[in-house]
């Protein structure tokens, strides 16, 4: 997760709001995966915030637009102005991926790319380039 990724927090009305990680404070409540009979996301107050540098995936795309990192729910998206806009923008990729997996059942990774550029898969990289050209206002600075 980077400072530009989004994280869902508990909103004042009990709803889920996505904020950039860099704006997270110890006054916020994040959603933590707890195992009871099944996994459930429960709000938990942020006690401390620390920075760690690790090697790994930058923004893996999931069908839900979220994933669990160290038992904390986080967004897959970064470098845009909202989680919701990014999720809508990536919908065609999720649909094509689902269709490809349905049509070609033995295909594990229809979008496998051995040529990532700076850790960014060519599809979101292309989408980012298009957004920078035509709608730069949806990208964060």
TrEMBL record:
<dbReference type="InterPro" id="IPR001657">
    <property type="entry name" value="Hedgehog"/>
</dbReference>
<dbReference type="InterPro" id="IPR050387">
    <property type="entry name" value="Hedgehog_Signaling"/>
</dbReference>
<dbReference type="InterPro" id="IPR001767">
    <property type="entry name" value="Hedgehog_Hint"/>
</dbReference>
<dbReference type="GO" id="GO:0007267">
    <property type="term" value="P:cell-cell signaling"/>
</dbReference>
<dbReference type="InterPro" id="IPR036844">
    <property type="entry name" value="Hint_dom_sf"/>
</dbReference>
<dbReference type="InterPro" id="IPR003586">
    <property type="entry name" value="Hint_dom_C"/>
</dbReference>
<protein>
    <recommendedName>
        <fullName>Hint domain-containing protein</fullName>
    </recommendedName>
</protein>
<feature type="domain" description="Hint">
    <location>
        <begin position="38"/>
        <end position="82"/>
    </location>
</feature>
<dbReference type="Pfam" id="PF01079">
    <property type="entry name" value="Hint"/>
</dbReference>
<keyword id="KW-0217">Developmental protein</keyword>
<dbReference type="GO" id="GO:0016540">
    <property type="term" value="P:protein autoprocessing"/>
</dbReference>
